[in-house]
Structure formats: C-alpha cells, structure tokens
Write a structure and sequence with these properties.
- The protein is an alpha/beta fold.
- Helix content is about 30%, strand content about 15%.
- The chain has 11 helices and 12 strands.
- The strands form 3 sheets. Strands 1, 2, 3, 4, 5, 6, 7 and 8 form an 8-stranded mixed beta sheet that branches. Strands 9-10 form a two-stranded antiparallel ribbon.
- α4 links the parallel β4 and β5.
- The longest helix has 18 residues.
- The radius of gyration is 21 Å and the shape is globular.
- The chain starts with 7 loop residues before the first strand and ends with a helix.
Length: about 350
Amino acid sequence: MAKKKEYTVLDLFCGAGGLSRGFIDAGFSVKLGVDFDDMALKTFAANHEGAVAKKLDLFNLDNVDKIKKFFEENNYALDVLVGGPPCQGFSLAGPRQIDDSRNKLYQAMVMTARILRPRAVVLENVPGMIQLHGGLVKEKIINDFTKLGYKMGEPKILYAPDYGIPQIRKRVVFVGLLESKTEFEYPEPTCKPEDYVTCEQAIGDLPPLIDVIGDKIQEYPCEPQSPYQMLMRSGSDAIHNHEGTIHDAKTKKFIAMIPEGKNYKSLPPEYDGLYKYHEALTRYHSKKPSPTINTGHRSHFHYKWNRIPTVRESARLQSFDDKFIFYGNKTQQYRQVGNAVPPMLGKAVASEILKWLKKNDK
C-alpha cells in the first residue's frame, strides 16, 4: 500500500497553537511552532504531538536561518506557512519603512516564505488591520507575497459563528498559493444565524463553581447536553483548567444586577458614572454566542453564575476541545486562550487548502 502523503505546516507567532490545532484536525502535520512566550510554547508542545516548539525572537531576522536549519536537518519540505504577526509589526514609516524595527515581525514571515518556499501561505489578523494606513498595509502584504510568486486574492473576514464556533469573533485571512493560476477559495459558512451555537450549548455542562474555586481536575457532572458539548468532550475523561474565581461582595452585587446579554448600563441610576469601559460588567447571553474572548476576562461574566468565565469555559467558546490543556498560571492561561485563533476556524481554512494541495498533486 502506498504511503499517504504528509502535508507539513510551520506556525510562526504560534502562541498556544489554535491555528495549528485546526490544521492538525484537518489532516496536516505541524512540524514546528515558533514564539517567544515560554508558557505558550509549553502549551503548544503538550498539545501538538509530533511538533517541536521553538523559542525564537523574530525581531531578530537572523533567527529565520534557525528555522531554515530545522527544516534542512529534518529533511522536511514545507507545504504551508501560517502565522499571525502582531499588529505593531505593520508600520509604514516613510521611505525607510523596511528599517522600522516594528516591521521585522511581519518581515520574518515574508523572509521565511522566500527561503523555504512553502506551497501556501496563510496570514491572519484582526479585521482592522486591512484598514491600517488607509489600506496600504493590505496592499503591502499582497504585493510582498505576489513578488515571491504567490497568487494572492483579496483577504476575507471570517465570522466565527458561521463555522460553528459559539463566539462573536472576526479574523481577516490572507491566503497565497505558490505559482497558482487560481485564487484561494475561502470556506463557505457551515452554520446559518438561526443555528449558531450558543453559550449554554457550549458550556452549560460544566460545573457551576458557585463560591468555590474547584479542583484542578474535575469530573463531568452530567452527560453532554448538546452536539457541541459532545464534540468538545470527545476523547476526554476529565475537566482541566476549570478553576473558578471568587469575587468580593461589591463585585458580586453589581454582577447580580445585570441581566443576560447586558452590561453596566443596566445598573440602577445611582451607579451612573461608576463604569465607563463599554464592555464593563458584560454578562453572556445563554441563547447567543459569547462576545469576543479577550486576554483578561475581568469584564465578562457567566450568563448564569456571578463570576467571570473559567479558562476552560473560555477555551470551549474558542472551540478548543477538553483534551487541549493550558499551562502556566491563570493569567497566562487566559492570555493564551484570548490570543488564539479558534481551532475550528483554522480547520475550515485548512480543509480548503488541503483540497487545493491534493488537486495539484494529481
């Protein structure tokens, strides 16, 4: 029997590895994840079997040579380069922009593509990035990869709930195909608005943790209550990263006044002016997807319980299954979850890239 072809992935700015997890779930083999966050790399290494997690400072473009060396020493050809360079890596500071240190993070991705010649490049970021500098950043990304031989179409903003993810989150995705005559075909939505997965369908089966922190590892208190919960629990026999937070009496008093789906604006008039941050005291709505998961979670609260969501609840809303375990202290774990691309969104993109690769290998 002929050996099944292995399609390889390199993930720059990998963090905990949401995008990589999506590519693995689609059938790819992730070989290397690169980041500068020690605890995120520990999480990445523990959850991506067969992948190496490497700490490299990509402000130093000489480190791209270390990535090249890794692929040469292991005799790997690279099929897909993925990455989400931080927004501050897109500076257009006049004619000497290439010398602006903030550009080096993005340039590391371009240089890696130039040296390793992956067959496809995936760059993701926040949607606002395509408006940066009046759209010049978008043009620069398209032009830089076009010069390297990649067919670059228009970037597309993908909306997480359209792909079965119980969270209002948007990401802009650029895809370049090496020496292709056709542009990338982005994945079609798999969910209609009336079928979006809700907060309750995502996390309603997890222990409530009312006025308790909870054990580091817990048992499931009930059977799955929805298809999404069943999917998230597949292959898992315990709950990790589900430690509660006990708030002070004042905070709990305010949270208790907020109805589902509302925020601080629902407080009685005597508390006007107490909060100004527009997401302060935002309570999830049980029958809707959650707001965008951020890296702090101090302003979002459970739709039913008067506490912030746990790391596991946030991970579920990001579409990380329960087998995916986060490492570090709670602050580090929250940051890893909030910074990640939802794995199910990554899988949707990866599945279309896989189709293109297989079609071009016939």
